[in-house]
């Protein structure tokens, strides 16, 4: 495809006898903000390092604008990387850190000065040219690392958990700033994180990984609302997952009741039913309707913007999110709207 900037074709990676990537296929589009998301050890950083050239795939092909770059060294790829550690030079000031790559390329001093000034303006640090790296806060150092990577005008910027060392407030601010930078510059960002909220907030496309495999690719909303399996459903947010059966499209049976749902029947009759906690309506005891269960609150946790309540109903423990709080021991009714019931096919475990 004309808009595919990077393509990984059957990329496989082993370290000694340990397989960390199982022949993955992935394409990344021009001007896309794509995030590799998964737990530690899922293969996301290895994937990023193969794209950057700091690791070589055991087998498979890496294409950049249609050209095989699998054996091209990192410094000859039009790709730059921002690491979690920032990797700034402590003996150089801010200007020298940002200008370093341009000096290696032997660009003229006037051009270097203009480009460094432009980058400092982009990351909102104009006037910091003469500052020592050691005098900067973590957030400021992170911006300098981004400016140093972007000043070389790469087609792709790789970011390996660059916000991991920042506090929560600054991390949220930088999420918005990074997304704005990407839109303004119109270049491709490939981002690695294990933070689900960060991934949902920033990405055009999410790639959910586990144990060296890609489990699902799609827009954040699509993956959140239609997870393909229990791992994705639980990793992207919180879910209630219950075993059910389907004998026809748009109808699923679980907990001795049958419900309308938004999905067609998969190949097998037994399914996983996923219901997000925020989609369940919780009310005080009243007559239960066709999509309702009577239950009792067993635990309450306050999360700032909502309460998470654990409710026993129909012999099942439910997680329910609501801005209204029902105390422990309260009798309640849970109502599940039809459009809140999503179906996932039962998946067989991969053989390692």
Architecture overview:
The protein is of the alpha+beta class and 352 residues long. α2 runs parallel beside α4. The strands form four sheets. It has a six-stranded mixed β-sheet with strand order 6-7-8-3-9-10, with helices on both faces. It has a five-stranded antiparallel β-sheet with strand order 13-12-11-14-20, with no helix packed on it. Strands 15-19-16-17-18 form a five-stranded antiparallel β-sheet, with no helix packed on it. The radius of gyration is 24 Å and the shape is globular. The protein is built from eight helices and 20 strands.
Brief characterization of the structure:
The chain has 352 residues and is α+β, with helices and mostly antiparallel strands. 24% of the residues lie in helices and 36% in strands. The longest helix has 18 residues, at 168-185.
How would you describe this structure in keywords?
alpha+beta, 8 helices
The number of E-state strands comes to: 20
Category from helices, strands and their pairing: alpha+beta
Order of helices and strands: EEEHEEEHHHEHEHEEHHEEEEEEEEEE
Largest sheet: 6 strands, mixed
Which helices and strands occur, and which strands form pairs?
Elements: E1 4-15, E2 18-29, E3 33-37, H1 44-52, E4 59-64, E5 67-68, E6 79-82, H2 94-104, H3 109-122, H4 138-150, E7 156-160, H5 168-185, E8 188-193, H6 196-202, E9 205-210, E10 213-218, H7 220-225, H8 230-235, E11 240-248, E12 251-254, E13 257-260, E14 270-275, E15 281-284, E16 292-302, E17 307-313, E18 316-322, E19 331-335, E20 342-345
Parallel strand pairs: 3-8, 3-9, 6-7, 7-8
Antiparallel strand pairs: 1-2, 1-4, 4-5, 9-10, 11-12, 11-14, 12-13, 14-20, 15-19, 16-17, 16-19, 17-18
Helix pairs in contact: 2-3, 2-4, 3-4
């Amino acid at each position: 495809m004309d808009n595919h900037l990077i393509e990984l074709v059957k990329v496989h990676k082993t370290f000694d006898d340990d397989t960390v990537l199982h022949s993955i296929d992935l394409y990344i589009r021009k001007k896309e903000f794509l995030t590799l998301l998964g737990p530690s050890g899922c293969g996301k950083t290895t994937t990023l390092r193969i794209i950057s050239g700091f690791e070589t795939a055991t087998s498979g092909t890496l294409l950049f604008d249609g050209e095989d770059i699998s054996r091209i060294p990192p410094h000859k790829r039009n790709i730059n990387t921002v690491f979690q550690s920032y990797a700034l030079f402590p003996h150089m000031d801010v200007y020298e850190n940002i200008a370093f790559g341009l000096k290696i390329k032997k660009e003229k001093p006037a051009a270097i000065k203009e480009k460094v000034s432009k980058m400092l303006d982009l990351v909102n640090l104009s006037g910091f040219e003469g500052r020592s790296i050691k005098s900067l806060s973590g957030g400021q150092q992170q911006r300098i690392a981004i400016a140093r990577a972007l000043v070389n005008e790469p087609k792709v910027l790789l970011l390996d958990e660059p916000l991991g060392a920042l506090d929560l407030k600054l991390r949220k601010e930088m999420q918005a700033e990074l997304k704005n930078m990407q839109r303004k510059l119109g270049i491709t960002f490939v981002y690695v994180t294990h933070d689900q909220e960060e991934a949902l907030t920033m990405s055009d496309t999410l790639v959910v990984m586990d144990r060296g495999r890609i489990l699902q690719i799609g827009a954040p909303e699509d993956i959140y609302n239609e997870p393909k399996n229990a791992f994705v459903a639980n990793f992207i947010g919180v879910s209630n997952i219950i075993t059910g059966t389907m004998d026809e499209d748009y109808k699923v049976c679980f907990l001795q009741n049958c419900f309308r749902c938004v999905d067609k029947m998969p190949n097998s009759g037994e399914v996983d039913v996923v219901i997000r906690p925020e989609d369940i309506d919780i009310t005080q005891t009243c007559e239960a309707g066709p999509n309702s269960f009577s239950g009792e609150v067993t635990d309450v946790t306050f999360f700032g913007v909502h309460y998470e309540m654990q409710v026993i109903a129909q012999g099942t423990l439910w997680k329910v999110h609501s801005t209204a709080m029902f105390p422990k021991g309260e009798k309640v009714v849970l109502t599940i709207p039809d459009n809140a019931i999503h179906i996932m096919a039962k998946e067989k475990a991969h053989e390692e």
